[in-house]
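Lecture notes, part 5. Sequence design as translation. It can be helpful to think of inverse folding as translation between two languages: the language of shapes and the language of residues. The source text, in structure tokens, appears below.
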């Protein structure tokens, strides 16, 4: 019986080195290639970590995930419906921000689809200018995609002078499409919650011209 010739492991290694050498991959070249691939993977992972936060925020706004409310530009096309719901208002201030923050009303009852304006009151209790920005959500978390805000102080950073007191409006409605979601058939109340956090390096805004200057055209 004939036997096929066998190839030793040393011969295999020699042949592999010859092929790699023919393709231009010397020992040093292979090291450089591996290093480049590793560097690319690290850069990709770092980039992904920075992109994760804005992507998560976008995902929450788009889907209402984790109780994130939606942003509307106008009232609902269908208008209010007969079903009513209670909306409760919660306010919190994170440590490091010397503000007093509270809703003017703790709870109201509205028709679903009705555009409503409510106010929160904020007072800077410090003897210096301070800045903050509000984070927000609604509970239950599953109704975030139905809670539509047309205007809200949480959209922008707030800078308060020493001792300043300010009324901050929220304009919102509960989307009538919520009645098509049978998981919310027994929903009777929604809680809108805000927490103000300190801003370490507030954005410096240009001084606005006075009304007299605007009339005179002296900008």
């Amino acid at each position: 019986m004939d036997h096929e010739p066998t190839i030793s492991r040393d011969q295999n290694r020699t042949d592999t080195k010859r092929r790699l050498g023919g393709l231009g991959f010397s020992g040093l070249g292979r090291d450089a290639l591996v290093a480049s691939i590793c560097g690319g993977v690290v850069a990709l992972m770092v980039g992904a970590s920075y992109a994760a936060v804005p992507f998560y925020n976008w995902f929450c706004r788009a889907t209402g995930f984790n109780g994130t409310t939606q942003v509307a530009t106008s009232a609902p096309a269908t208008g209010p419906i007969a079903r009513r719901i209670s909306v409760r208002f919660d306010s919190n201030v994170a440590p490091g921000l010397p503000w007093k923050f509270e809703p003017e009303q703790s709870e109201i009852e509205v028709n679903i689809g009705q555009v409503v304006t409510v106010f929160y009151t904020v007072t800077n209790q410090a003897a210096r200018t301070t800045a903050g920005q509000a984070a927000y959500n609604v509970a239950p978390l599953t109704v975030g995609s139905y809670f539509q805000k047309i205007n809200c102080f949480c959209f922008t950073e707030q800078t308060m002078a020493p001792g300043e007191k300010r009324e901050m409006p929220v304009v919102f409605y509960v989307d009538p499409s919520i009645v098509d979601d049978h998981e919310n058939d027994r929903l009777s109340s929604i809680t809108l919650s805000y927490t103000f956090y300190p801003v370490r390096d507030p954005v410096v805004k240009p001084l606005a011209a006075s009304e007299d200057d605007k009339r005179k055209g002296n900008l």
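The translated text above is only one of many valid answers, since several sequences can fold into similar shapes. The first strand starts at residue 70 and ends at 71.
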